[in-house]
Write a structure and sequence with these properties.
The chain is mostly helical. Helices cover 84% and strands 0% of the residues.
Amino acid sequence: MLEQDLWNKMHEENERAREHIIWWNQKQDAQRQRDERWILFLNRFEAIIITAIAAINIALAIGVINFGYIIEYFILYSPDLLKLFTILGTLILFSMRGYIPIGYGCLEITVGIAAILSTPNAASSNIPAALPLLSGAYIVVRGLDNIAKGLSPNSFLGRYFSLLFNNPKKNG
């Protein structure tokens, strides 16, 4: 009788453990599915952001959008709204830097190149005259670094980044 009770108790414990394992696996599967949906959303969002950045850059380059007029309007007629947009923009950009480093890196490279191209021709070789040029170069490097952070070392672009810039680091 004692052996039978011991056997029944062990069987009940095993059954509870098996049910707990099944519950845990279902919980992990549900979390994995949520993570996969979130990653898919972020990949689509990243593609939209990169496309929007490219479209805005093209529109600025061919003169369809005159960004100077937009900023001038806000400065003259609504400086508080410009400040609010700037604060919101910095929060969005910081979030973009964390969630979409490749898109943020592309944006940084664009801003850096714009800073380099808008640098006036320096008549002298002093530091203040060269500062905008150096700032643009620094922004481009930061953009490349953010792109490298978002790349997998095993991806197509990651392998070329690794070959050209030794970044991202190879596994192992």
